[in-house]
UniProtKB/TrEMBL annotation:
Keywords: DNA integration, DNA recombination, DNA-binding. Residues 179-351 form the Tyr recombinase domain. One of its GO terms (molecular function) is DNA binding. InterPro entries: DNA_brk_join_enz, Integrase-like_cat_sf, Integrase_catalytic, Integrase_recombinase_N, Phage_Integrase. It comes from the Bacteria. SUPFAM superfamilies: DNA breaking-rejoining enzymes. This is Tyr recombinase domain-containing protein. It comes from Ruminiclostridium papyrosolvens C7. Belongs to the 'phage' integrase family. GO terms for biological process: DNA integration; DNA recombination.
Length: 353
């Protein structure tokens, strides 16, 4: 399809690429008569690329700013605005407000690596709908989103008419204490076991089920924090104090921990086929979702955590041990450093399921 002169073009790149269609505009003609391009972005399909080009021509923006990610805008904004109020900074904000903004930002993890110009209302609504948070928390999130979009407008990342935050619906807020828990059934767990060997990442599902860790905790686990000999690993960073803990490695999944420890030179236990650190979005889109579809299941990664709790409860494991294994609130900071005996007890507990 021939596009008008000066409109820009859509071009398919060679080779196997996840997003082979690029959108470009001619910046200038060099001394040799060759066109020099500015690239607006890369897309999975030709229709998506053409839509992006049409949106650009409808509301042109500075192409140099078009590569700025949502996360980069947050970093720039936070460096300027999240300043603690004190004698040297009388116009700063309180520590509680700073903490509130940072907590809201954590909810945006799935879109932080997107280019800001590509973030649409549907992406913002997805963040709200998947958060499971209550109305006061979502109201704070919406304030943050408004601040980020205003900052992007002021710094010419987007035009004013692209600010869609006011249309984000937070009226259907959930209750963080009443999550939509959907553990794997016993039949589904058996099916996962039967699929081991079909794909290298099937065993990751079992590692999650038989450890109770959050998927982000497992993706960020470094090999240096794993002891195969004593069958435990340390979670050194978590969303709560209770989440910083030593987790036992069940006998059933020990071979999979051994497999990933020796698989490559990546410092992280789990890695991409190229030996790189996993980002959640990459893991979910490229591995978790396709594997769920392959097995005919509909689960979120967090369901493995609820499955672990359910299995431990069914095995009549002491509630105190369950909290220590999965890192639920209820254990104090002084309980985080376990003795060797306690770790052995946790291993006995996890091996009951």
């Amino acid at each position: 399809m021939r596009l008008p002169n000066g409109y820009g073009s859509v071009h398919k790149l060679s080779g196997k690429r996840r997003k082979p269609w690029c959108v470009r505009k001619t910046r200038e003609i060099d001394n040799n008569g060759k066109q020099q391009y500015d690239y607006l972005g890369y897309y999975k399909t030709q229709p998506e690329a053409l839509q992006a080009l049409a949106e650009y021509n409808s509301n042109p923006y500075d192409i140099k700013t078009s590569i700025i990610t949502f996360g980069e805008v947050y970093e720039k904004w936070s460096n300027e605005r999240l300043i603690l109020k004190d004698d040297a900074h009388p116009y700063g904000i309180s520590q509680s407000n700073i903490n509130g903004y940072k907590a809201s930002w954590k909810l945006c993890a799935e879109i932080k690596d997107m280019k800001f110009v590509d973030v649409k209302l549907s992406h913002l609504q997805m963040v709200v709908d998947k958060s499971g948070k209550n109305y006061p928390t979502l109201r704070k999130l919406k304030v943050l989103l408004g601040q980020l979009f205003e900052y992007a407008i002021i710094h010419d990342v987007i035009t004013k008419d692209r600010n869609v935050v006011e249309y984000v619906d937070i009226s259907k807020a959930g209750n963080p204490k009443a999550l939509n828990r959907k553990p794997f059934t016993n039949q589904e767990i058996k099916k996962v076991w039967s699929m081991v060997g079909a794909n290298d990442y099937i065993n990751v599902i079992l590692m999650l089920i038989y450890s109770g860790v959050r998927v982000s905790e497992l993706l960020d686990l470094k090999k240096i924090n794993v002891s195969l000999k004593e069958q435990w690993f340390d979670i050194t960073e978590s969303k709560t104090n209770a989440g910083i803990r030593r987790v036992p490695i069940a006998d059933k999944v020990l071979p999979y921990f051994q497999h990933w420890m020796s698989k490559n030179q990546c410092e992280y236990l789990l890695s991409t086929p190229d030996g790189e650190h996993f980002l959640y979005r990459n893991y979910y889109d490229s591995y978790w979702k396709p594997l769920m579809d392959l097995m005919g299941m509909s689960h979120l990664p967090h369901d493995t955590r609820h499955t672990c709790v359910s299995l431990l409860t069914s095995a009549q494991v002491d509630e105190r041990f369950i909290k220590k294994i999965v890192g639920h609130s209820g254990q104090g900071v002084t309980q985080i450093v376990y003795t060797h005996l306690e770790v052995s007890e946790l291993l006995v507990a996890i091996n009951k399921i």
